[in-house]
Design goal:
Layout: H1 23-36, E1 39-43, H2 46-57, E2 61-65, H3 69-82, E3 90-91, H4 94-103, E4 128-132, H5 144-154, E5 157-161, E6 179-182, E7 197-201, H6 206-220, H7 226-236, H8 239-262, E8 267-271, H9 281-287, E9 294-299, H10 302-310, E10 316-317, E11 327-330, E12 342-346, H11 352-365
Parallel strand pairs: 2-3, 2-4, 4-5, 5-6, 10-11
Antiparallel strand pairs: 1-7, 6-7, 8-9, 9-12, 11-12
Helix pairs in contact: 1-7, 2-3, 4-5, 10-11
């Protein structure tokens, strides 16, 4: 837990100052990198990880598919700071991407995991493709392989924010992603007691991207603290047990909520890709190894949603996700782009019957 180390002694393990390096941070990066299958660079929060990548790549033409309002705000801040004179930031639409996909030829001899930074004067159709899949809070999925083809045609770096899935539920590198991002505050931590973020870079990009991210982090200072790194290592020991249990329980809760919808018991929509009615159901069968343990549902009105959240006894009316406790979040409080009748659910490790019992009594009191 030290910030500084005695020089030239074996017990310092080559450490000088903890902002630049620490054995605990090295260990947790090695563990996460091995789980995801790349080179991990940790940060002080998920948003600091996202911001670090934006500043490293310096994109001018961006396709952004992000549900989390914090990521959208980070890109808006980048745009506001750099829309000066002729140097403007352009956010491209899905329709434009589809046109480029049809028009541009792909060199089939190029490994789609390969990518290189753009030169200062180089103009590309796209510099960065940022996908949040599954999406927060609607759990819609992106066709990662399609966007990987688009990236290879346009020269873009393809980033997948896989926070809602975790490496157990989705393997973006196997489908062509260059970088995978996680908020380690969520499922990696699992205890709601640390802030952190991580970028995992495809091994083929170690020299062109991992090294640059690490060097810039030393200067920017957005490093994960020693205590947070230690807590994260602790959490990784139960990572598989927790996440698999959460996903299994989520399936049961989703089925119960869908029955309430069918029976017209105040539930009007359930947003989870396990359901055939969900727009990403077919994509889920291709990409997901485990169903998301975070999802959302809608009641008949805003007042019902607020009342439901207030009436919970076992589960907590709180934001965030991925922890061992089940959380219900009235998302409109933070993000007015979603329905005011929507509630986001992060399933914990409680017994499914106990969660259902709590949901049942809260639903009865929702008015």
């Amino acid at each position: 837990m030290s910030t500084t180390f005695v020089a030239n002694v074996p017990e310092s393990y080559g450490q000088v100052y903890s902002r630049m390096d620490s054995t605990t941070r090295r260990r947790v990066e090695a563990v996460i990198g091995a789980i995801e299958g790349g080179d991990a660079v940790t940060y002080s929060s998920g948003l600091s990880a996202a911001t670090a990548l934006i500043h490293c790549i310096k994109p001018r033409r961006i396709y952004l598919d992000a549900g989390y309002f914090g990521i959208r705000s980070a890109f808006k801040l980048w745009s506001d700071r750099h829309n000066l004179g002729n140097d403007t930031i352009q956010f491209c639409t899905l329709e434009q991407c589809q046109q480029w996909y049809q028009q541009e030829e792909k060199d089939s001899s190029i490994d789609r995991s390969c990518w290189r930074p753009a030169h200062i004067e180089e103009e590309r159709l796209l510099d960065l493709i940022w996908l949040e899949s599954p999406n927060n809070p609607y759990t819609t999925l992106a066709d990662i392989e399609w966007f990987a083809e688009l990236a290879s045609k346009t020269g873009a770096c393809l980033v997948v924010d896989s926070t809602l899935s975790s490496p157990l539920g989705q393997r973006p590198f196997e489908h062509g992603a260059h970088v995978v991002m996680h908020s380690t505050t969520k499922y990696f931590s699992g205890h709601s007691d640390l802030l952190g973020g991580v970028l995992i870079v495809h091994p083929s990009l170690s020299n062109v991207l991992t090294c640059k991210l690490s060097e810039e982090r030393d200067t920017d200072g957005a490093v994960m603290g020693g205590l947070e790194a230690w807590l994260l290592l602790r959490s990784m020991r139960t990572f598989s047990l927790r996440v698999r249990r959460q996903c299994q329980t989520a399936e049961i809760i989703v089925e119960w909520l869908e029955k309430q919808r069918i029976n017209e018991n105040k539930v009007t929509k359930v947003h989870h890709p396990n359901l055939e009615s969900h727009p990403s159901h077919s994509l889920a069968t291709r990409y997901l190894r485990l169903p998301p343990a975070t999802f959302s549902f809608e009641l008949e009105s805003e007042s019902q949603a607020k009342s439901f959240a207030r009436s919970l006894l076992l589960c907590s009316n709180a934001t965030s996700l991925g922890g061992y406790e089940t959380l219900i979040d009235w998302r409109y409080r933070f993000d007015t782009s979603v329905s005011p009748a929507l509630l986001r659910v992060s399933i914990g490790i409680e017994e499914p019957d106990d969660i259902i019992q709590d949901f049942q009594q809260a639903l009865q009191q929702a008015n």
